[in-house]
Description:
Chain A is of the alpha/beta class. Chain A has helices spanning about 20-35, 50-65, 80, 85-95, 100-105, 120-135, 170-175, 190-195, 215-225, 230-245, 255-265, 320-330, 380-390, 395-405, 410, 450-470, 495-505, 515-530, 555-570, 585-595, 610-624; strands at about 40-45, 70, 85, 100, 110-115, 135-140, 145-150, 155-160, 180, 360, 365-370, 430-435, 440-445, 475-480, 485-495, 535-540, 575-580, 600. Chain A has a six-stranded mixed β-sheet with strand order 15-14-13-16-17-18, sandwiched between helices.
Amino acid sequence: xxxxxxxxxxxxxxxxxxxxxxxxALLAARLLKTGGRQLGGLWLKARxxxxxxxxLAHLRDIFGSRTNWIKVPNSxxxxxxxxxxxxxxxxxxxxxxxxxxxxxxxxQGVLLLPMAERLNAATAAVIGEAIDTKxxxxxxxxxxxxxxxxxxxxxxxxxxxxxxxxxxxxxALSDRLGLIADLSAVSWSDxxxxxxxxxxxxxxxxxxxxxxxxxxxxxxxxxxxxxxSSLRRLRYLTLVARMLAAMESRGSVxxxxxxxxxxLCLGVNLQSQxxxxxxxxxxxxxxxxxxxxxAEPSGRAEPEPKNEDRTSSSQDxxxxxxxxxxxxxxxxxxxxxxxxxxPARSSTSRTGxxxxxxxxxxxxxxxxxxxxxxxxDARPSIIATLRAAAPWQMIRSQNRAMLLARLxxxxxxxxxxxxxxxxxxxxxxxxxRHETPSTAIFMVDASGSTALERLGExxxxxxxxxxxxxxxxxEVAMIAFRGRGAExxxxxxxxxxxxxxxxxxxxxxxxxxxxxxxEKGLELALSVxxxxxxxxxxxxxDGRGNIARNGEPDRNRAKEELGLVAGQYRxxxxxxxxxxxxxxxxxxxxxxxxxxxxxLHFLRxxxxxxxxxxxxxxxxxxxx
Amino acid sequence: xxxxxxxxxxxxxxxxxKALLMxxxxxxxxxxxxxxDRGTGKSTAxxxxxxxxxxxxxxxxxxxxxxxxxxxxxxxxxxxxxxxxAPKAVKTRTxxxxxxxxATEDRICGALDLEKALVAGEKDFEPGLLASANRGFxxxxxxxxxxxxxxxxxxxxxxxxxxxxxxxxxxxxHAARFALVGSGNPEEGDLRPQLLDRFGLAVDVRTIDDLxxxxxxxxxxxxxxxxxxxxxxxxxRKDAAIRSRVVKARKILRDVDIPDDVLSRMSQLxxxxxxxxxxxxxxxxxxxxxSAALGGRLEVTWSDVSEISPLVLCHRLRRDPLDDAGSAPxxxxxxxxxSAGAGHG
Lengths: 624, 345
């Protein structure tokens, strides 16, 4: 991050004066009230606490008591969202009765998603589709050959409690929520000092508001430069700007409105703010490339005045253009973190089996009910089975009665009347799914002179990783090789305490049995893989193995064996990272990485921070 | 439901629009897969397509989309019993059936008619989404998030064109010939190769980066939201022009000819890229025919092939761990190589 306002004449706000965020949040609340359904809803970044409660209470207050608030648990199933058939009621009344889903019940109201960062992508997609089409299709079919569709218009308030950059709202949802409010920096005193009051809104509606082409262009450019290329969000930006102008009873959008809209929709701010992360980040981009903002000949965007939609006063857009150039230069704080922080998607797509959520898992979240058993000894789900059998009962009992009528009296005495007739066809199985964790396996060269320093750094990186990836249930292991062989210093673990205890006092120095280290790593990786986790190998070496597999010092043989082992890494599709720790990048490490199919990084001084960043990116990718 | 956004009003994204129209002209292509970032108008385009296409002919009340001349055995409406007259033939919109992610197997394949079973104790078949999509399109948004067991069902039906339901005395077979249209975001999960193969064309949609076009998108969207009917009215003529192009292309499709030298170069191209099986080559031929027909031409040229082949071949390439470039550059290189070779020979 660059210092806020460096060299750009932006006024950094002194720390401690954070009420801006609270005022913005209140403004977002007003916008939700007036035009929330056009804007999809609100992405509320807030951890649990008094501030959040106060804000939600304020929202309820604004919306009034007549508005529906439908709270959706984040493990919600599709049938609960979209509605299902109420079998008992159907049997009783003699016509099909449906239970409306949560989406239909939220009509004209608010869909509240607590802990939305834990929502799975498929559920988010269903909600997103309902936002787009304003229709929730229920699982029934009506007689006119189409699914029953219930009109529903609601706005979503997704509460995002992300603690780390890896967690965020599912894209399907975050892209559709026009407003962003971040309460993470709001202190309790701000909240109590400005007790919110619901205000009367102006008579103008946003449809009446003009927005000049110049402003629209600038908004588009800032959004582009901030790494947000979604057209949906750009549309929200212009809408919010117009709504803000309407609130102030202005006939056209002024610069202040545009600046505020940028704050509310993108979190782009002239003031120093805590870093937010946007996740509509296009891939593989660290800096917006010049051709993205094509309308700029040379850095400065001075929009040419366009007469056709100039409003009465010629507008002065200096602040906006200043903001744009600041965003482009990357000298602005509070910017969404850009692609250099987020793991770039590898173009090679060496996905293999990496991190795919295990299909047909034996434990995890229930995802669907199916007719076929997910694994051979699965037990049917009783409720689902009974539901499937229910409609058949009348048909089957009639059949049974017919068969009984043909039997002789003597046989009839042996026949018991069953309570429910269930046949094999009715069996239904609950499918479960759980994300496989990844395991980072560090293979550290503990030989030679720099060993101690390197081991220390690796320990630091491991501890950092563990503290970061606790949420994702990822594990870390470490193998050190020196002298005549390799040993597993730290078996795969999730526990920070254990890692610290095991890593205390590692010896270093001696020759380099690189082959043994790689072999040990491969064994461990395969066992990790068998346990259903995805291994990510991290090799720290200067690439000069001089001890063969049998522990004898034989440089040539070591080289030969190294080629074989490294080839195995590639053929088994191990995701691996090779970190060159020599003083000068060496050919030998590059060719080893090539043979292994590993990503190569140079860390002359393998500092813990950057190492854990690199590995973390790979771990996240392994799950993607 | 208000009218969907008009197809002709979609800004840029020419590849996607062309692919969708080709799939509409040639049902045997096997549909389109649209991959791309958020907010690039994938769903908008698909919903617009259904509105644009010419109507199909079936009978009133038929739920299997039977052709009036050829009723299916499963259909209780079109099959007349003891001399009753079948209902009259009607024209309906080309089916564009949404397959929601949360759909159950029963909903897709069809199942026991609940109402009749619970109320009267009668065994009757309630057609599912596969029946509704017959002779039209089956659209799956976020196709990469679809559950595995549902994917299996779809593959089965899409491969055979027939949906079979067998349950204690319910024994139904009905036609399920549809073009799959899938959209998704590859960052959220990959597709199984078996499913990838089923899609004839794959398009990568990038977000528009031209500022003027971006503003134009916003303007049109605003106008549409403000007055949907009026907006559709003002684009109706352009939509009609595209529709008549599709109708004409369908008429001449079977007469489009592929010259021998173009055919042999197509084979070279597929061999050079190591495409497995015949499916790729066959789809490439069909796609080029459809493309020429859309252009109103009766002969496929090499420029057709070089323009279309990325759409057909990119998603069929084997992943090459040694090649860092994506699949699109590989296809382009191969095309360039074949073109150059043709120039010398």
